Amino acid sequence: MSRKTYLLLFLAGLILPSFFAFFQPTPGYLDSAYYFAGGIQLAEGRGFTEPYLWNYLDGTTSLPHPSHTYWMPLASILSAFGMWVAGQSTYAAARIPFIVIAALVVPVTAALGYAFSKKRDIALLAAVFSIFSVYNSPFVGVTDNFSPFMLFGGLYFLAASKLIEDSSQRKYWFALGALSGLLALSRSDGLLWLGMTLLFILYRFTPHTSLSANHALRIAHYVSRITHHASRTFLPVFLGFLLIMSPWYARNLFTFGTFMAPGGSRALWLENYDQTFIYPSDALSLESFLAYGWENILKDRLWALGINLQSGFAAHGGIILFPFIVAGILYHRRDERVKLAVMAWLILFFVMSFIFPFAGARGAFFHAGAALQPMWWLLAPLGLDGILLSLRKRNWGSDQTKVLFRSVLVMIAVILTFYVAYLRMFALGWGEGEAEYPAVEQFLLENGIEQGDVVIVRNAPGYYIAARRSAISIPYGGTDTILAVAEQFDADYLVLEPQAALPQIKNLRDAPEQNSDFIFLGEVNDTYVFRIIR
Fold it and tell me: Contact, 386 vs 327, CB < 8 A?
C-alpha cells in the first residue's frame, strides 16, 4: 500500500481519541493518574521519585520515595515528554504522545494486515477495526499503556512477518528484542514477550544431523548449528532487549540492590484485591498465603478465570468480532504468527488467572492483552472471508454478500464503540472521585492544613495531581492501621470517600464523631474529612 494511504489512516486514527479527550479532563482512574503524576515529577526535574504513595508493597517508610516500584515507567516517561514539548505540566499536554501513538496503531495494523494477507481490502478493514476498537476506545488516548502496547505489539508481529520470510535478517531479531524491551518497560507482564521471542526462536530452529557415522562429528556439527543459530538470533534479541531495559535495571540495582523493583513480588500472596493496599507489606508472605487454605485459593482463581474469559470475549474480542477472530485463528492456524499470538494469549490468560488472579480480574488481563489487538483486528476480517468462502462453495452468497457482511460488521463495531464510550465516560462517569479533590483541598486550607502536611486518601496520585500535596493511600485494615500509617508517614488528615469506606472502617462514616482518634472536620460533597490525633 502507498505512503499516502498510511498517512490518511494515521490522520483518521487521530480523530476518535482527540474527540474523546474533550470529555476526559482528568486521568479518570488510578493507573492513568499514577502515570501522569510520575510524568509531572520527571517533567519538573524531580526524577524517579514520588511525594505520594499508592500502595505499601515495596516496604517504603517515608516520603518522598523511589517511584515505579510496582508499575513500570514508560507511560510516565511519555507523559513527561508531552509536557516537555508543550512547555506545561497539564493533563492535556501529557496525553499528546498517547493520542499520537493511538493514531500510529492504525497504519501499523493496516501494514500488518497487508503483510499477512497481501490484500488491500483486508488491511483497510483491520485498520477500521483498530479505530473503532469497542472496549479499548475510551482508553487509547489516556496516560496509560493501552496505545503503546498496541503499537509495540503490532510492530512485533510485523517484525515476525519479516523473519518468516527470511529468518537470517539479524536486524529483525534485534527489533523483536527491542520491542520486547519496550513492552517490558511499559508493564511488568511485558517481560513475557522476551520469553515468547525465545520460544519463537526455538520453534524456528531445525537442526540437521550430520550424515557422518562418526558420533563425535555429529555432535560437533550439532553444536556448530546451535552456535550459529544463537549468534544469528539469541544474541541480537538480547542486545535489543538490553538496549531498552538496561538503564532501568541499573536504576533498580542502584536504588534497591536488585534488578527488579520490590513492589510486585508480594502481589503473589494476595488473598483479595484490597490487600494490594495492606500495611505493613510483610504481612503478605508464602506462609500467610498457605494459611488462607487451598480451597479458598482455588475458588479465587476459578473466579478470576471466569472474569478473564469474559474479558477475552468482550474486551479483546470486541464482542461482535469475537466469533470471526476465532474463525480466523482456525482458518490460519498453521501460520506461525497466529500460533505465536494464541500462545501469548494463553500464557497471559494463565498468568492473570492463576498467578495474579486479583490484578488480572481487576483489569491487568485487559491491559496486557492490548499487545495482541492488532492481530485480532486482522484475523476478524480473515475469519469472515473464510466463512463466506465456505458458504460460496455450498452455492450460497456472492461478492455483494461479502460487501454486505463487511459493512454490517463495521457498522456494529462503530455503534458498540460509541455505546461503550458513552457508558464509560458518561453513564458511569469519568473519574473515581478525584474531581472533588480541589474542593476538599480548599476545605482543608480553611481548616488550618499547612503546606507540608500529608493526607490519607483513596487515590493518592489523584490527590497530588489536584492539590500538589503529598498523599498516601488508605491502607487495608481498620482504624488502627490508618493510625499506624499516619504515624509512619507523618499524615495528619484523612479524606474518606464513600467508595473507600471498607467494612473495617465503615464506622467512621456511620458515626464520624464517635472515634476519639479522628476529629470530624466536616463533609465536602459526601466526602468526610478528619483530622488525625497522633
Answer: yes
